[in-house]
Design goal:
By secondary structure, the protein is mostly helical. The protein has three domains: 2-19 and 397-516, no CATH class; 50-187, no CATH class; 188-294 and 337-396, no CATH class. Helices cover 52% and strands 6% of the residues. It has helices spanning 40-43, 54-76, 79-83, 91-102, 105-109, 120-138, 143-161, 168-180, 189-212, 216-219, 223-230, 236-242, 246-261, 271-291, 297-305, 311-317, 321-329, 338-364, 370-381, 437-442, 453-465, 468-471, 499-505; strands at 398-406, 413-414, 486-496, 509-516. A hairpin with a 6-residue loop joins strand 1 and strand 2 (413-414). Helix 7 runs antiparallel to helix 8 (168-180), helix 9 (189-212) crosses helix 13 and helix 11 (223-230) packs antiparallel against helix 12 (236-242).
């Protein structure tokens, strides 16, 4: 009975019926521009197996298997509540909408196995299957087939995840995993170059976007004054980093810009420069892991740095007993038939065209020609040739939403999330490589960006219904037995406590009340 339902956070009644459907951009990829013709003589050397990177490739595939395992496991415990039939954004609703609008083109525009079955069991089953196939890859069982299956499974989940899996690390693991398919029988010079190019794009464009954004926090070297406190999900190391002296935080910001704007060019220079690029990049990633919860992207970046280190270096670090295993699992020269080589050249050419065009557009601000734009859209849709720009702007304050429910509108009880800040005394948890997608997405809501309305409205609607698959994503649901009649959202500005304040109160956080959402000013940026 909708009329008996009380307060809605947007001053509208939480009634019955279905929430609104999502809308998706609908390009029609009817034509494709021709790719540049590469003379056969120019690619012969690129198709040669580069035996300098056999141990590197073997170790890289092992690390990738572990990262895949962590990514799939993270999704397995939350995918039903996010996009299952009783989740926040039921994927079947989107599939039905797309097919009604696009017909058979929808299968191409939405590449996912869940056209066959998008039930909660199917979604979770694919995530669990991803964990299993990751173990196959780890132990060298049909590595090429395993990588193909892993790519298809994660691509399917990334599409099903909609806004919850629309992040750069989700595209990065797809592109890394796709390229990895071509090194299971040994790394060719072409594939080593493609991994170098991917790492360059990831690092350089992250730095360039920081300057292109015009954010004074980066240009004024003040970004780390805010970063540890305002990032989506800090952990206990973030609190300690926030206490560092001002000069060290400014120096750290300058070092990050150096590592992202200058160091990436070392990748294409002689060996000593490549080694320096690897060591500096790895040092930055370890620093981020020590102070931030950023799921698996830092581990993935570190694994890419292996292609800057050849067998001479990896062989010294890798125990001798693994050397023979690497040679047995990567029989150089086998399986590189003509069809495979042609496929590899075509894939590399396509990624180079798409990524170069996207990079040009980002750096110059100019739109791509329609033909290139169509190809770029297709590549992006399949996780290839993406533009990567990590933290182009820095938030200068942390606004936290405390969602509360009530049966009578007088006594209110808060919902507690698993990992995002809430209780002042709760220590920020270290959860790498897990990414709790709901906790992460709540961080975007204080911006009051209309693009967040759909999923957040549905989340509130499911809380009002007390939907078990959704409330399982929370740490504590105060209305297990009876759904709340009223919902409201309180907004607070959170700060880390100082060491003195923590000693006196035992709290990791302090806060000040800002008002009730969405009547509070949006967070900027």
């Amino acid at each position: 009975m909708a009329d008996q339902v009380g307060y809605h956070y947007r001053d509208a009644r939480l009634g019955g019926g279905e929430p609104p459907h999502s809308i998706i951009f609908n390009p029609n990829p009817l034509s494709f521009p021709s790719l540049p013709v590469i003379p056969v003589g120019s690619v012969n050397r690129l198709l040669e197996l580069d035996d300098r990177y056999t141990l590197t490739s073997w170790l890289f595939l092992k690390l990738l298997a572990l990262i895949y395992f962590a990514a799939f496991l993270s999704l397995a415990v939350q995918i039903r509540g996010l996009v299952g039939p009783d989740g926040i954004l039921p994927f079947q609703d989107l599939l039905d909408h797309l097919y009604s609008q696009q017909g058979s083109w929808a299968w191409f525009n939405m590449p996912t196995l869940f056209w066959l079955d998008s039930s909660g069991a199917a979604l979770q089953g694919v995530a669990i299957a991803g964990c299993l196939i990751s173990l196959f890859l780890l132990f060298g069982v049909a590595p090429r087939l395993s990588l193909i299956v892993l790519f298809l499974l994660y691509l399917s989940l990334s599409k099903a995840g909609q806004t919850f899996l629309n992040f750069q690390w989700d595209y990065l693991i797809l592109e890394v995993g796709f390229l990895a398919i071509f090194i299971t029988r040994g790394p060719t010079r072409l594939m080593v170059l493609m991994f170098h190019w991917l790492l360059f794009r990831l690092r350089f464009l992250s730095g360039a976007s920081k300057l292109l954004s015009g954010d004074p926090s980066w240009s004024g070297l003040a970004a780390l004054n805010y970063y540890f406190e305002t990032q989506p999900l800090p952990h206990i190391g973030s609190w300690y980093a926030q206490q560092l002296p001002q000069w060290l935080l400014e120096a750290g910001t300058a070092f990050v810009l150096f590592a992202e704007l200058i160091v990436p060019f070392f990748i294409f220079l002689p060996r000593p420069f490549r080694i320096s690029a690897a060591l500096i990049t790895i040092a930055v990633q370890i620093g981020i892991i020590a102070t931030s919860n950023h799921n698996f992207i830092n581990l993935l970046t570190i694994s890419l740095c292996l292609f800057l280190l050849d067998n001479r270096i990896v062989g010294r670090v890798l125990p001798k007993r693994f050397h023979q295993s690497a040679l047995m699992q990567m029989p150089l020269g086998t399986g590189l038939n003509r069809l495979f080589q042609v496929t590899m050249i075509g894939v590399a050419s396509l990624i180079l065209v798409i990524s170069s065009a996207n990079m040009y557009s980002l750096l110059t601000g100019q739109a791509l020609p329609p033909a290139i734009n169509r190809v770029a859209y297709i590549g992006h849709n399949y996780g290839l040739g993406n533009v990567y720009h990590i933290f182009p702007t820095m938030q200068t304050e942390r606004q936290e939403l405390i969602i509360e429910g009530s049966h009578d509108g007088v006594e209110w009880q808060p919902y507690l999330f698993r990992y995002k800040p809430g209780l002042l005394s709760k220590a920020p948890a270290l959860i790498i490589p897990h990414q709790p997608r709901l906790d992460w997405m709540i961080w975007f809501i204080p911006t009051q960006n209309p693009r967040m309305d759909l999923w957040f409205d549905r989340f509130m609607w499911q809380l009002h219904r007390n939907q078990p698959q959704v409330t399982k994503l929370l740490k504590h649901n105060p209305f297990e037995s009876l759904p709340p009649k009223y919902l409201r959202i309180q907004v607070y500005r959170y700060h880390f406590t100082t060491p003195k304040e923590r000693l006196q109160t035992g709290n990791w956080w302090k806060r000040e009340y800002l008002g009730q959402f969405p009547q509070t000013p949006p967070r900027q940026p």
